[in-house]
Amino acid sequence: MVDAILFRQEEPETRCRDAEPAPELLSIGDVARIFGVRTSALRYYEKLGLLVPAERRANRRFYGPDELRRLALIQLCQRTGQLSLDDVAALIEGSYAGAEDLWRTVLLQQIARLDEQIERAHAAKEYLRHFAMCSYSHPISECPSLRESLENDVERKRAAHGAG
């Protein structure tokens, strides 16, 4: 089970105007620079409920270790899982709320989409490899294998739309 601390997102603490933020807190600008995002992205994540600053002081947002881990998780989900922000929210909320069905469904649906992408990428790679290695001078216009493949594709499309 995911450590609940990772997902702790409470309302930011309001401190006295003269007090300095805790040393482990980073400003929104520092976090944006470290994570390679714009400050507007962090504010957008906040608007979506994905990220809540640990503290606000003088109308500035500050983030602590818990929030940095959450931001790293958001980026990991987007980069490696290619999840949308809606899916990331469902994954995080489902994990935090103990809604196993919700986050498991999100993950299984994304795995199916990735499998389809991988299949298309493999097919594209094979076509490109064939074009690069084809013995014909102009494979696009001369290769009988490509011509047959294109004709089959046209027929499948026509059949799918009822055009005989």
SSE sequence, one letter per element: EEHHEEHHHHH
Shape: elongated
* Whole-number mean pLDDT: 85
CATH-defined topology of the domain at 4-77: Multidrug-efflux Transporter Regulator, Chain: A, Domain 2
Taken as a percent bin, the fraction of beta residues is 5-15%
Q: Let me know the largest β-sheet.
A: 4 strands, mixed
The parts where pLDDT drops under 50 for at least 5 residues are 1-9, 13-18
User: Number of helix segments?
Assistant: 7
Give me the count of strands. Answer: 4
CATH hierarchy class name of the domain at 4-77? Mainly Alpha
**CATH architecture descriptor of the domain at 4-77:** Orthogonal Bundle
**What is the first-to-last residue Cα distance?**
55 Å
In spatial order, strands of the major sheet run 1-3-4-2
Specify Rg, calculated over alpha carbons. Answer: 25 Å
InterPro entries: DNA-bd_dom_put_sf, MerR-type_HTH_dom, MerR_fam
Keywords: DNA-binding
Protein name: Helix-turn-helix domain-containing protein
Domain HTH merR-type: 25-94
Describe the protein's architecture and organization.
The chain has 164 residues and is of the alpha+beta class. Among the domains are: 4-77, Multidrug-efflux Transporter Regulator, Chain: A, Domain 2 (Orthogonal Bundle); 134-164, no CATH class. It is built from seven helices and four strands, in the order ββααββααααα. The chain has helices spanning 28-35, 39-48, 65-79, 85-97, 100-133, 139-142, 144-160, and strands spanning 13-14, 26-27, 55-57, 60-63. The protein has a four-stranded mixed beta sheet. Helix 4 (85-97) packs antiparallel against helix 5 (100-133). The longest helix is centred in the last third of the chain and has 34 residues, at 100-133. The chain is elongated. The model is unreliable at 1-9 and 13-18 (pLDDT under 50).
